[in-house]
From TrEMBL:
<feature type="domain" description="Histidine kinase/HSP90-like ATPase">
    <location>
        <begin position="49"/>
        <end position="130"/>
    </location>
</feature>
<keyword id="KW-0723">Serine/threonine-protein kinase</keyword>
<dbReference type="GO" id="GO:0004674">
    <property type="term" value="F:protein serine/threonine kinase activity"/>
</dbReference>
<keyword id="KW-0418">Kinase</keyword>
<dbReference type="InterPro" id="IPR003594">
    <property type="entry name" value="HATPase_dom"/>
</dbReference>
<dbReference type="Pfam" id="PF13581">
    <property type="entry name" value="HATPase_c_2"/>
</dbReference>
<keyword id="KW-0808">Transferase</keyword>
<dbReference type="InterPro" id="IPR050267">
    <property type="entry name" value="Anti-sigma-factor_SerPK"/>
</dbReference>
<protein>
    <submittedName>
        <fullName>Anti-sigma regulatory factor (Ser/Thr protein kinase)</fullName>
    </submittedName>
</protein>
<dbReference type="InterPro" id="IPR036890">
    <property type="entry name" value="HATPase_C_sf"/>
</dbReference>
């Protein structure tokens, strides 16, 4: 897999943005995109950080696939002292914490526990979910 070119370093921090059709197979592809971005742009980030980023990407994209019909966009970018993950989808609902059961309910608490900041922006025709993680 080859990533689209990142933004120039002199314009703003590097980011990658990928559109997906919303099919369940895009979850693994989204993880791959984030992993390649981390390898190329944040090799100094060690410890469990890369695993945490991939887990948050998986959870946010999974939520979009399960609860929003249609396409979604994943953006991963460098932030001062961390990384930003944004998922834009066409679903009208907001993520919320529910009682975990055999079919789910664990993802949103995981995202909230790993991120220093989580923000949901309702938009016409969908929403954007943003998460920021520290190095």
């Amino acid at each position: 897999m080859e990533l689209p070119p990142a933004t120039p370093h002199d314009a703003r921090p590097p980011e990658v943005r990928v559109d997906f059709d919303g099919a369940s197979g895009c979850i693994a592809e989204a993880r791959d995109v984030a992993g390649l971005f981390l390898r190329d742009h944040a090799p100094h980030a060690g410890g469990t950080f890369p695993d945490d980023v991939l887990l948050v990407v998986s959870e946010l994209v999974t939520n979009a696939v399960r609860h929003a019909p249609g396409p979604l966009t994943l953006t991963v970018c460098l932030l001062p002292g961390g990384i930003g993950i944004t998922v834009r989808d066409t679903g009208p609902g907001r993520p919320y914490t529910r009682t975990p059961d055999r079919t789910g309910g664990r993802g949103w608490p995981i995202v909230q526990s790993l991120a220093r900041r989580v923000h949901v922006v309702p938009e016409h025709g969908g929403k954007t979910v943003q998460a920021e993680l520290d190095w």
